[in-house]
Amino acid sequence: MAVPLLDVNAQNHPLESEFTNAFHRIFHTGHFIMGQEVTSFEQEIAALVKSKHALGISSGTDAILLALMALDIGPGDEVLCPAFTFFATAGCVARTGATPVFVDVCPTCFNLDLRDARKKVTARTKAIVPVHLFGQSADMDGVLELAREKGLRVIEDAAQAIGAGYHGRSVGTMGDFGCYSFFPSKNLGGLGDGGLLVTEDDELAKKAISLRNHGMSPKYYHSHIGGNFRLDALQAAFLRVKLPHYAGYTANRRANAAFYTERLSALPGVGQASLDACAGLSPTPAQQEPAARITLPQALPGHDHIWNQYTLRIAGAGQRDALRDHLAARQIGCEIYYPLTMDQQACFASLPASSKVGCEVSHVLASEVLSIPIYPELTVEQKEEVVAAIAHFLATQSVA
Ligand SMILES: *Cc1c(COP(=O)(O)O)cnc(C)c1O
Fold first, then answer.
1. Residues of the chain with CATH 3.90.1150.10
2. Which atom of ligand 1 is nearest to the CA of 63?
3. Which ligand 1 atom is nearest residue 85's CA?
């Protein structure tokens, strides 16, 4: 039985008639950009993410860029961001003319290591962009403490973590801005591109609203240089169809993660990531390599993980690629998120060396990680198949 890494339409098909109705509703208004539909969506999603101001945006990437622009970040500024993440975070920083400074991550939770971030603060550091990778919050107490102490702005990249929590708080609402994505593979996926920007600050909200539409107010009078970062009315209408189902999607993802963790941890050679080694939980994290051949991800205490990805670490030279090939041969989808760290990207070759030092854990992760199917509509048989394939790999592939 084939098990795709992701089947975005598995959750869209049952809603087809509602999508069709939404299309007809918007089609007949003739109002395709922003407007009442986007406003209604913003109100509904603000309740989900527990934020004061929620702005529909053209994409998650644009939400990050808009946040940086609203905070006047640009040439001469340095912005701390993780070395191990999707490109958009660092890409937006570079597009403003600021310099991204890459911070190493934690081997247990994959998120920013605040001890490394602290070492990399200079007189030019203006902001820090924690990414809540794979659906789990970064160490936000650590981020906010560093930001307060050094006077940094905080932009949360919550593209993979909409609805996730952190000790009772909502991911994306703890910094100056929070950014989310509705790219179809995200936990709340649209039928195309879309994003969201949130803030608790009235002034920042006002500025972001203006910059979203060319910094224009009144019409054809531009006080700031903004852009077109608007969300389509159709996309807002489609997302409103999916919103009431979001809690169910998350519950299924959590159940899938629990299934994998229970079944895989029973296999010889499999262990769970060490909480003692987590940079955010332990003042002197253990640095030794994990003993297990396969290390399972952990939901940290107080973090309401929403499992955008279930990401394994496979130790040993060539072993990760061997497992990937083993799963692919059985038509089981898997993906390396991410094979190259930000400091290793060709497009950042000309950044100063000081932007790229000390990302050793990130480099190890890039060579060891492999994400397996976790999407909400997986059947028990499909999950069994994934577990059986991994068990077979462990039993038959010898370690070099
Ligand atoms: C998906 C993603 C983005 C970008 O979102 P888009 O809507 O695709 O532009 C930014 N950061 C992270 C961590 C992401 O996973």
1. 246-396
2. 9
3. 13
Region(s) of the chain under CATH 3.40.640.10:
8-103+113-245
Q: Name which residue sits closest to atom 5 of ligand 1, judged by CA.
A: 60
For the chain, helix (H) and strand (E) counts, in that order, are 13, 14
Gap from CA of 382 to ligand 1 centroid (Å): 27
Q: How far is the CA of 306 from the centre of ligand 1 (A)?
A: 16
**Ligand 1 atom nearest 61 alpha carbon:** 9
CATH number attached to the domain at 8-103+113-245:
3.40.640.10
Q: What is the pLDDT along the chain (400 residues), one digit of tens a residue?
A: 899 999 999 999 999 999 999 999 999 999 999 999 999 999 999 999 999 999 999 999 999 999 999 999 999 999 999 999 999 999 999 999 999 999 999 999 999 999 999 999 999 999 999 999 999 999 999 999 999 999 999 999 999 999 999 999 999 999 999 999 999 999 999 999 999 999 999 999 999 999 999 999 889 999 999 999 999 999 999 999 999 999 999 999 999 999 999 999 999 999 999 888 888 887 666 655 557 999 999 999 999 999 999 999 999 999 999 999 999 999 999 999 999 999 999 999 999 999 999 999 999 999 999 999 999 999 999 999 999 999 999 999 876 5
Per-residue tokens: 36: 């009442």
The answer to whether 197 touches 177, Cβ cutoff 8 Å, is yes
Nearest Cα residue to atom 14 of ligand 1 = 159
Distances (CA, A) of 154 to 144, 260, 334: 8, 34, 32
Rounded Cα–Cα distance for residues 242 and 22 (Å): 11
pTM over 0.90: yes
CA pair distance 50, 64, nearest whole angstrom = 19
Q: How far is the CA of 16 from the centre of ligand 1 (A)?
A: 26
Topology adopted by domain 246-396: Aspartate Aminotransferase, domain 1 (3.90.1150)
Q: Residue whose CA is closest, atom 1 of ligand 1?
A: 159
Alpha-carbon distance 176 to 201, whole Å?
7
Task: Give the residues surrounding ligand 1 with Cβ less than 6 Å away.
Answer: 59-61, 85-86, 88-89, 131, 157, 159-160, 181, 183, 193, 195
Nearest CA to ligand 1 atom 7: 60
Return d(Cα 236, Cα 240) in angstroms, integer.
Answer: 6
Q: What angle do CA 204, 164, 336 make, to 5 degrees?
A: 105
